[in-house]
Structures are given as C-alpha cells and as structure tokens.
Amino acid sequence: MVTGNTTVIKGDGGVFNNKIKISQGTPFSPFLFNSVMDELIECLEQSGVAQGNLNSAAGATSQGSVSDNRACFTFSYPGPFKCQACEHVEAVFARIVNHCTHHNVLVNGLTCNICNKHFRTVNAVASHFTHCRKVANSVPAPATVTPLDSEVTVPAATSYVCTACSRTFSTFSGLRLHEKRKHASTFVASSQRPKNHRWSEHEMHDVRATLAKLEKTGSSSLAALAEELSCLWQESISVNTAKYLRKKALATESSEPKAPACTTQIIDCVDCSGSSSPRELKNLMSYSSPISENQEYTVGELDNFNSGLLSALEDSLTSNNTEIEGDEDRKHYTDGVASVLATLLRPNCDGRNPPAPTNRRKRLPPPARNRSERKRCNYASFQSLFKRDPKRIAAHLIKNQPLRNVSCPIDVAESALRQRLSQRPGIDAAPFKFKRPPNSECILSPISADEVTLHLKLMSAETSAGLDGVQVSHLRQCDPMCLAKAFNCFLLARYIPPQLKDCRTTLIPKTDNPRPDADDYRPITIASCIYRLFSKIVTRRLENCISLHPRQKAFRSGTDGAFDNITTLTTIVRDAHKSGKELNIVCVDLAKAFDTVNHSSIDRALRMHGLDANSRALIAQMVTGSTTVIKGDGGVLSHKIEINQGVRQGDPISPLLFNSVMDELIERLEQSGVGYKINNTEVVTLAFADDVTLVSSSHRGMEKLLSITHDFINERGLKLNIRKCKGIRFVRTPKTKSLVQDTSKAFKVRGSGEESSCIPMAGPGEFIKILGVPIAPNGKPSFDIDTLEGTLERIRKAPLKPAQKLAIVRDYLIPSLEYKLGVPGVGRRVLDEVDASIRQTVKRFLHLPHTGMNSMFLTMPIKDGGLGLRSLRTQHLARVAVGTNSMMSSADPTSHTIASMPQHQKPLHAALQHFSVPAATKDALKKGKRQLLCAEIAELTETYQGSCLPTFRKRPVGNSWLSGLNGMRSRDFITGLKLRFGVIETRSQKWRGRTPQNPAVLLCRHCGHSTGKRETAAHISQKCPQTKNLNIQRHNKIVHLVAEHARREGFTVHVEHALKSDGQVYKPDLILTKGNAAHVLDVAVPWETGTDMHEHHERKVTKYCMISDDVKAHFGVDSCTVGAIVVGARSSWCASNKTTLKACNTHFTKRFKRLLCRVALEGTCRPLLSALEHFAVPAATKSAIREDKQNLLREEIGQLSETYRSSCLPSFKKASLVNSWLRGTSGMRSRDYIAGLKLRFGVIKTRSQKWRG
User: Fold this and answer.
1) Does residue 1113 have a pLDDT over 80?
2) Four-residue CA torsion sign, 969, 970, 975, 980
3) DSSP string covering 1029-1097, please?
4) Contact 531, 430 (CB under 8 A)
5) Where do the C2H2-type domain residues begin and end (predicted)?
6) What does the mean pLDDT of the chain come to?
C-alpha cells in the first residue's frame, strides 16, 4: 500500500491476476476494491453455510438476492430422505444435504408430509411435525359440522360459530380447541389479558420521553413518573410499576436495536457506491427510506427489505464506475461489507425475532428456619452456581474470593471509566531514533484463506461474543475465503467499520474482597468476534515487523516469560548472598497502564520501528473511534463511553502495541550501566508487559533508574503508582560476606512530591511477589503447605458432590500449583508433601481406602482409566527442564547466562535422565512422560488391582465418566471407581492375600450356601440369583436405547422376535429391517477380565449366524447380517462393535457410545450396592433386624477368631459372668483395668509381642 508498490488478487484455487498499481490518497482507484468486493459477493453465494443465511436475509428460500442456476430439491419430513438424482437414501437430513453437494444441487428446505407446509430448516419442521401429527391423529367430535353440509344441522341456541371460517361447534371448548389448532392468531388475540402484559417498544419509548421531560423540569420522583404515565396511557400506574419501568428504560437505553441505524448506514453506502452524481444518489435513495426509530416491521417486510438491500449492494459493487472520490466513499463500501457479513453470521438471521428478555422479579426463597434447611439451601445454591460458573466456585474455594457476584456499582464504574478513557491527551511529539529505516515494514499484503483458517483454529470456542452476537462457532461455519475477502476490504480501505469496534466491558475483581470502587476492578473489553479474528491476523504480521528488546518477556512466542523472569531474579538474589555484593531491587507499578497509554505514543513507537504510513493508519483505525458499555449485574448496561486513550484489555493487538511503547524505556534503562553484574553480564531490567523490575548494585544507581523511568512515563502520559511499588535492599555487613536487609535508606523518586517520593521498602523477612510467585529474602520460592491443607479442607467440606470436588482439584487447583511450584528452587520434599496431601484429601471425599490401593490410579490420565491428578513432582521436573532449555536457546544473552549456570544445569540433566530423552523440548519431554507412564502402567498391570487395565487403556469412550461431569449419581460414581480400582468391599476382597480356616466366610452371603460361589464383584453383578432382576434391567435398558436410535435412523425394529431353526427357538434382542436388508443384533454386557472383548462378540455372532436364512424367509428380504453390541459391565466399549455398525450402515456418535457405557456401569453398580448392604432383610421389622444383626456379628466374630490376637475368643464368648469387669464399674484399679484389657486383646508389651511376625 506504499507508493510505487503493486499487488495481485488471489482468486479461488490460488489463481492470480495481472499486477495492479495501487494509488495512495484521493482520488481512490476503485478497480481493485470493486474486484475484491465482487469476489466477496460471489464467495457468499457459493458458501454452503452462508447460503441459508443469505436466503434468509433475502426473504425467500429459492430466490435469493443473488442468482443461482443450480437445481433445487425439496425433501419430505420425517424421511427417510431419498436423493432424486441417484436414488440414495439417508435417514439424517444433514447427511442428505452433504450428499446433494456432490451433485451440485441446492437443498430447498423440507415439507411436512401431513400438511405439505414448507420450512427452511429441519428444526422448524421438526417442531411443527409433532403438533401436526397430533391434529391428524385426533378424531373430530361428531357435533362439529360445517354450514355447507345440508344434511346435518345444529340448533342455533347451542351452537358456537368460529369468526374466522364460520364453522359451528356444539361446545365452547370445541370452538376454543378449533381456534387454537386452525387460527392461532385469533386464539392468541382473544386469550390476551389486560394485566401482566409485556411492555412494547412504543410504551418504553413513551417512558424514556417522559423521563427526559421530567429531567428538564427538575422533577424526577417516581410519583411524578407514575402520574405522567397514568395520564398518558389512561390507566392506573402504581409507583412500583413506575420504578420497574424506569429501571427497564435505563437498562435498555444503551442496548436499543441498532438495525435501523445500521440499515440507514448501508443505504448510504449503497447510494454512494452505486451513483456518481448527486441526482443519481437522490434517485437511488428513493429505493427505500431510512427506518425511523419507532417504526415496527414484520419479519417478512424486513426480509424483503434486506433482499433489495443486498441486491442494491451487489449492483453497486459490480458497477462500471471509474473513480470514487474521497475517503467517505471508501468508508461506505467497508461499512456495507461489515453489515452484510454480520447479517449473514448473526445467529438470528433465519427470520425469527430473538426472544424478548424477561424481567420477572425473582422470588427470594423463604429464610431457613433450622440447620437442616440452611444446609439444603446452601447445597442448592452451590449446585446451581457450579452448573453455570464452576470457575467462580473454584475461585471461592481456592482463592477465598466472594461466591456471589460482587461488582462495582455501574454508575461509579461508568464515571471512573469515562474519566479515564474519554480524556483526550496531548500529542506525543517527542523526538526519537529510528530502530529501522522509515517505511521499511508493511502489513497490508492480501490475507489468504489459509491465514484465516489458522488463526480461527487458535480462537477458543468458549470465548464471549460481542454486542453483535456473532460467536466463534458462527465464524467456523463460514467459508474462510469469504472472511479473507472481507478482511482484504478492510486492508484496502484502511478503515474498520464502527459496528465491529463497539465493545462490552466486564469488571473483574483484582482482590479477594474488592471495595465498591473502580480501582479494585480490572476492565476486560470484548469486541466483535469478527474484529478479534482480524486483529489476530494483523497482530501476527505486526510481530514480524517489530523487533522488541529481548528483556521484554511478555507475550513472546517460543518462550516462557514468567519462568524466565522469576528464574533470573532468584538467581541474582542467591548470587548476591553467595558473593556478598550489594543488591537493590524495586518492583515498579504503573497506574492503569493499558487504559491510559497515549494513542499518539503508539503511532510514535510504530514509526520508530519503521512501519509505513498506511499500516499505521490501519492500526490507528483499530485503536481509535471505538466505544464501550459496561455490563453490570443482571445484564444492565451503562451509557456509551468513548475510548480516546488506552488500549482495550481483550484486544489481541493491545499487548503488542503496549510493549512497543515500553520498548524505548527498556532501551534507556539497559544503556544506563548501573545494573547488577553476574558472570560478566549486567542485569538491569526484568520486564513483563507493565510489570517492570529494576535491579542495581548501588543505591545511587537505583535512584538513577527510577529517575529514567519517571521521566519516560511522564513523557508518555502514564503515571507511577508509588503506593504499590515495592523495594528491597541487601547490604554487606562489615568484615563479613553475609548480606543483611537494609530498610533504613529508602529509594527516592524525583519530582513525585514529598509524601509519595519514597518507594515503600519490604520489611525484615517479608516476601516479594514476582508475577504471582512469592520470593523469600534468601532467593528461594516460598510455599506454605498449611495454606494448601486449609484449601483442601474447604474443598472437602464444600456442599458439592464428590465428582464435582474432584473436578475442582483436577481442573483448577493442580494447574495453579503447577505454576507456583514450577520454578527452580522448590525442594523435592515440598513436592512430595503437596502430592500426598492432595491424594489423601481426594481419597477422603471419594470414600476410597487410604491403604491397600495403588496411587497410580489417581495420577493416570482419564483416557487410560485414571482420575487425571497429575503428579506435581513430575510436572515440576518437566517445566523446569523446558524453561531452562528455552532460556539457553534464547536470543537474550542475560537469559542464556543465567540458564548456563551450574545450579540450573543440574536439574536439567536430572530431568533428561529421569525422562530418558536427549533434549528438553516440549515434544521430547511429552514423549518421555508418555513412555514413563506406559512403564508404570505395565508394572501396575502385573498386580491384582491392575489386571483389567488392558481392557480400559486408551479407551476415551469408556473412560469419559471418570471426569465426573456426566451426571452420574454420587453413589454410582464412587462404586464405579471402586470397581475399576479393585477395592470393592466384598468378602473375597477383604480376605485377599490370606487363607481363612473357615472357607465359608468367603462364600456369597446370598447364594453361597446353595451354589458354593465366592462373593466377588463379578459374581454379584453377573451370576448371583439375588441380583438377577437388576442385571436383566441393565441389559434391557441398553437394548431399548439401541432400538430407539435405530428407529430414528429409519429402521423397523423388532425386539426379542422369536424364530425357530433346527428345532430350537432363538430370540435375538433386535432385528432391524430397512429396504431389502435385515440385521440381527444381540446385546451383551460381559465382565471384563483383561481378555479381549472380541471373544464375546464372536460368540454372539456365531450363535445367531444359524438363523440368517430363517430371517430372510420370515421378513422377505434379500440379505441378512448378524452382529453384536458388546458393552462391558465396567464401562468398556468393544472395538468389534464398529464392524456391526458398519454392516448395518448406521453410526453411533461418541456421545451415544458414552451413554451406553455409562448405563452399563450404573446397571452394574446398583446390584452391588443392594447386595452389599449390611442389613439385607426381607422386611424391616425389629425382630428381623435384630436377627440379621446377630448373624452379622456372628460372622465377624468368626473371622476375628482366625487371627492371632483373638485365638482365645471362644473361651470368653457368651460368658457374661467372666466378662462383667469389662463394663468398668466393678471397682478395679485403673492400672489393673488397662492391663486386663491389653491381656484380653493380645496387645500386652512383651518381647514376643514386639517381635511377633
């Protein structure tokens, strides 16, 4: 875009046209611009996802605003859907749409096969079909007749006539039912009540006008508002209603529908682009008048309006104008592109109005009357909040932040942000020295579709949408070529439409207990997703053009800036203590740095780095001219706030622009020559965005650095927040090499005033917090294990389900600990204590045994059958190795020097040896950790508890329930864990590793006396007669789910259809028929024993292969396949099921497979829970319970008699006279009583007792 440059247009397939010379300024050459816009419109036509939206905007399904010569197919719902070109049949509408694309055929919606009504989307016809089918299946009442029928008459005294179609009914209920089914609009109109109505836009406009009138007169009370509205609407308006209306009017004032203004803007764009003279502009303006603010339109009228608007925009972009005068025309072009693009991507572009917001006042629950009600209310509030925002629950439990949404009052926040952002600072015209030749860098090369796809994948799908409602999912459904051509229009015009820069600001608390003040909140500003995607692309290009100082570590690709700065600082402090050299450190805090940086300072920094004028003009458009509204509690929005200074925290380009401004400060500090030298390398600055740490070897040198910093931030319009700065000084004691902390001599900042001229100093023994990690005065990272145990105890006692507590620990607590403990200097003992504390707490709230269970089950990944609680010791080794290796390969000489020191090389080599990898790269360490995990799992597989691991390893479908967030009952989740980990409390499990003298204690307590079977988990869930009915229910539920899925796929399902073959009767679970093919399916739920599940699958197939010919003859089909659906009792998915599904020409989604596995596991847990109850009696009578207690006690005493300590128990059993002294009321001396108890219990302290075993 610089004078003398040329460009080419990249078309579909990578075809380039001839070179085009680009002019600068006005007049603007429109040929290149119109060519790109023409390709944009063509791309919008050919985009599969945008086509439906384009037709919706045009108001017609088959005749959009852009011509399309493709053939159109219409399908009948509910299917099956048959292709009219190749006779292909599909049961899913999305598949037939995908199939039609291969024929270059356009799908023109669907029709209901009952009433032949046409619909554009499958969701619309599916919603209609259920009601239409009920009407068709209902039998009309015999009293209902039509006036045209001369044979039947109804007496006039008892008839009710429909006002819409003159049909008569004998009852009023019949008339109302008829109106509801046939004349919905008449039914709704006659059913409306005068009270509890929704407030229309006309009424809200009256309220706003009345409020403005009262403000002018100086009377703004609620009574005056209620009186004015009562006179205006001729009805009684109470003070409470007036209060509600005022609140709603103020809330919706800044969020009124912007379609009229946007539409008017597009009309202006069309007019300016489609005409070359004022008269032609006026003629084109007669095409449609601007929409007034209070005018209402129906959906069809708006669709027709959008259709004509899109056609006019297409005509204007493909016109033969030779020249467009002025920048305003360019802006109108780009505004039209952004408006059309937002219309096509908007979620409500299918012609339906968005649901009206409900303003019903929530009823507060009655106050709890006792402790039980308080516990229930607390539990209910936690559950509701966890479903909506689990991150807030985690912040409350881990960081002790408030559970409720504590936000700044919206009027206070609006006043503070308006004062901060809307000020217009002076122009930064300070002289500078070019780092690169002027106009040597440009970022305006055409954007390709691959570039859009790359950055779109990097955007999180959960990121919030802007005010336009466009989400990342909508962008991913659009053709990347369409987005690339729209972005190229922004580049060519060097202009960003204002509707894409309208933002929404959310206030995030900075502290645990924020005050009702805007200073305690961090404003996060969110723009449109379309703009953020464009900003990401521009940011990546700008990174290649700007060479920042290597001491700036924030937002640098390929390096861990936080690890680098923390390691450097701890190394400097420890080196100073070792060598006895003076050390001075100051952590500088800039007041609202991102919000107050001058826009002219950004332009100055970009010029310093050699960016050309056109690229700087584009970036200026991205930074300036935007507005924002603050979103408060309940979705209340403030008035618009203009952003005249600062960069938005939430814009991808903001950190890079701020770093470019701060780069000059780092250059000045590094040239001062007063830093701290370590291994002949001088360290002056540790920078991470606006977190700047100054290091010097003398008190005078530190004051010089502070003076340089103070002068620079004053030139840029920033401020130094001295109250939040922190300094620490180490000086050498006389005649020794040891350092002591000096707090008597503070650092002074020149020109900052007498009261705030001194930097606050850290007290003796006080920690310094660097990037969230506390550093002790001796240079070692500090970690308080007592604080962690308190956090774990709060999580354990929280009113959450055990699976939810597990998710809090796994997804939030452990990642935060990995950051704090992933720095050099953390001891191995601390890491082991943290891991042990986490394991013990998790075992407690999951009710797992504290001993006798292998801890590998907790640390294994979920996909391998574990709980995914990563070991912090392993993570520490990996993070330190990766960070040290990154510092050694860094372009910063300081980082290379620090990483090359022996105290950092030793952990690096230890990590390489531990993971058995040649280099400490991320990929190599990831592979090494996986190999180490495989070796540990292989060792676990050789044990009793891990014998079934081969069945569950690398099975994400069967292991998904281990995450704990799939809706399982807590008792089923805990029982499933015990089943997987081999610690279920059965008799065989209790006696594992020991041989009782009485083998009867190992038999099943329900059927062991008759069958002689041992009580194991496999026996109870598969073979025990006591749980047979529950096992059948488990099997039948899976059969039912598979059958319902097959019906949705278009199959005719026969459940347990009996067939006789060779004198035997076979009853397969399912027989599916479709067309001329039949499929025999049988469901099996076997117990996983570590062997291949394929054996169970083959056994079922072999059994029912014998009835293949009988199935063909019985159902009259040409082909028959036999298969099986095998789901393990402990939630494993057989890989052979894929063969069965492929033979049936059907597909199970991952979600449906997870459902089947979860149902199988729940069906296994319930018989175990019922069978292992201590008091399993047929009737809950006192005598039965007493008898069962005695039987249970007799069994336990029998087990105890087999041990060494209780070998004499039979001599004292049932001897009340001998055992009377055990009550403690016989008058024995205390020492004799205690010694007697030790004798009875076999724990007397003798030499033989000590050496027993």
Assistant:
1) yes
2) positive
3) HHHHHHHHHHHHHHHHHHHHTT-EEEES--EEETTEEE--SEEEEETTEEEEEEEE-PPP-SS-THHHH
4) no
5) 160-184
6) 79
> Rounded to an integer, what distance in angstroms lies between the CA atom of residue 725 and that of residue 759?
6
Of the listed ranges 212-226, 289-303, 366-380, 1003-1017, the one predicted with least confidence:
289-303
Distances (CA, A) of 795 to 398, 449, 929, 1099, 1243: 8, 47, 29, 48, 38
In the DSSP assignment, the letter for residue 575 is H
- What tokens does 1148 get? 């199970």
User: Tokens representing 991?
Assistant: 């006696």
Phi and psi at residue 151, to the nearest 5°: -85, -25
Dihedral (Cα; 994, 999, 1004, 1009), 10-degree rounding: 180
Tell me how far CA of residue 942 lies from CA of 379, 937, 938, 948, 954, in angstroms.
Answer: 42, 9, 7, 10, 18
The structure tokens listed for 377 are 């209310």
| Token code pair at residue 852 | 């006798």
pLDDT single digits (tens) 1033-1053: 999 999 999 999 999 999 999
Q: Where are the domains of the chain?
A: 72-134, 160-187, 202-249, 411-565+584-744+767-771, 785-954, 1002-1174
- What are the backbone dihedrals phi and psi of residue 652, each rounded to the nearest 5 degrees, phi first? -60, -25
Residue 1137: how many other CB atoms lie within 10 Å = 20
Q: Which amino acid type is present at position 761? A: M
**pLDDT over 90 at 133, yes or no:** no
pLDDT of residue 29: 44
Q: Where is average pLDDT lowest: 13-27, 769-783, 861-875? A: 13-27
CB atoms near residue 194 (< 10 Å): 6
Which of these, 1061, 1106, 1062, lies nearest to 1080 by C-alpha position? 1106
The tally of CA atoms less than 13 A away on the side-chain side of residue 194 is 3
908, pLDDT greater than 50: yes
The three-state secondary structure class of 589 is coil
Peptide linkage before 78 cis (omega within 30 of 0) = yes
> Would you state the CATH architecture of domain 1002-1174?
3-Layer(aba) Sandwich (3.40)
pLDDT, tens digit, for every residue of 503-554? 888 887 776 666 666 677 878 888 889 999 999 999 999 988 888 889 988 8
Contacts of 680 (CB under 8 A, 6+ apart): none
CB of 1188 closer than 8 Å to CB of 1002: no
Task: Check: CB of residue 552 under 8 Å from CB of residue 662.
Answer: yes
C-alpha–C-alpha distance, residues 86 and 103, integer Å: 9
pLDDT score, position 557: 77
Sequence-separated (6 or more) residues with CB below 8 Å from residue 626: 498, 501, 502, 503, 527, 643, 648
End-to-end CA gap in the chain: 88
The DSSP result for 406-433, as a single string, is: ----HHHHHHHHHHHHS--PPP------
Residues 1015, 1006: Cα–Cα separation, whole Å: 9
Strands (E), 437-582: 502-509, 521-526
Q: In what order do the strands lie in the sheet with 691-696?
A: 685-688, 691-696, 583-588, 726-732, 739-741
Closest CA to 991 of 1203, 688, 779, 773: 1203
Residue 275 to residue 284: CA distance in whole angstroms: 8
pLDDT (tens digit per residue) in 449-482: 999 999 998 888 878 888 888 888 888 888 888 8
Under 8 Å between Cβ of 771 and 570: no
Least confident of 425-439, 704-718, 855-869: 425-439
Between residues 1027 and 130, the one the model is more confident about: 1027
CA atoms within 13 A on the CB side of 883: 24
d(CA 1127, CA 1124): 10
- Could you give the CA distance from residue 589 to residue 433 in angstroms, rounded to a whole number? 27
